[in-house]
Specification:
about 240 residues, alpha/beta, Rossmann fold, seven-stranded mixed sheet, 7 strands, globular, BrxB, DUF1788 domain-containing protein
Length: about 240
């Protein structure tokens, strides 16, 4: 990953390796600011953020996310606000819960061995994946409705001051980052949302914004989220 992926500060060591501890210390400092919690200074923009990281550091980053959530849950804010509740949405678990909610999970599992048949030269398209795409992205009663309802329930109980979304790499290609965030636009508004993304979220005035999963899959355009590394920490 190039150092340009980390604007505003340097999470790369002199040898070019990624310093996850330093990276997540900055993320913690951003999230522990009252302006982040209360979503001020956004100019009317959606409080969506992306925290990208090298995909090969997935296991280490999972631990960093655990630590980040634990630290935030015990951190009081400078303006006197209490420590926040964190709603963690793991997308693989959420897809399974969604299918279970529709009473089709066992059927889908039974169908998988027979439905993994190619339907094009694209290895990301086969009969089983198309089935999941159609179920997840249905016009009604889709995954995004399910996630929004889950958020509303948690928020109503005081359990969603900040939303973490993880596992986007585990559900590709039937759930895609830009599609997910587009569908949650206007539905998760009462809390800042952070999606942890294994790959690169690049933003530039020349080429716009794009999400490139694993730094290998073709980039998908998405411009409504801020890279959390672009958010300043006010000392």
């Amino acid at each position: 990953m190039q150092s340009s992926s980390f604007p505003g500060y340097d999470a790369l060591l002199s040898d070019g390796s990624y310093d996850a501890a330093k990276d997540f210390e900055h993320v913690f400092e951003v999230m522990s600011q009252p302006s982040f919690l209360h979503m001020t200074g956004l100019g009317g923009e959606q409080p969506f953020y992306i925290c990208d990281y090298p995909a090969e550091r997935e296991l280490e980053v999972r631990g960093c996310i655990d630590t980040l959530a634990a630290r935030l849950r015990t951190t009081k804010y400078a303006d006197g606000s209490p420590a926040p509740s964190i709603l963690r949405i793991d997308l693989f678990d959420s897809v399974c819960d969604f299918l279970r909610h529709r009473d089709v999970l066992e059927r889908v599992i039974d169908l998988e061995p027979r439905r993994h048949t190619p339907i094009s030269s694209d290895p990301m398209r086969d009969g089983f994946l198309e089935l999941l795409v159609n179920m997840v992205n249905a016009t009604r009663n889709n995954l995004y409705d399910f996630l929004a309802e889950h958020y509303d329930e948690a928020f109503g109980k005081g359990g969603a001051d900040i939303v973490f979304i993880t596992g986007i790499g585990a559900v590709y290609p039937y759930v895609r980052g830009h599609t997910l965030l587009n569908n949650l636009q206007g539905r998760i508004e009462g809390s800042p949302l952070v999606m942890f993304f294994p790959g690169t979220y690049a933003q530039s005035s020349a080429s716009g914004s794009s999400m490139r999963l694993y730094d290998r899959i073709e980039a998908e355009n998405y411009y409504r989220a801020k890279n959390i590394r672009d958010v300043s920490v006010i000392s």
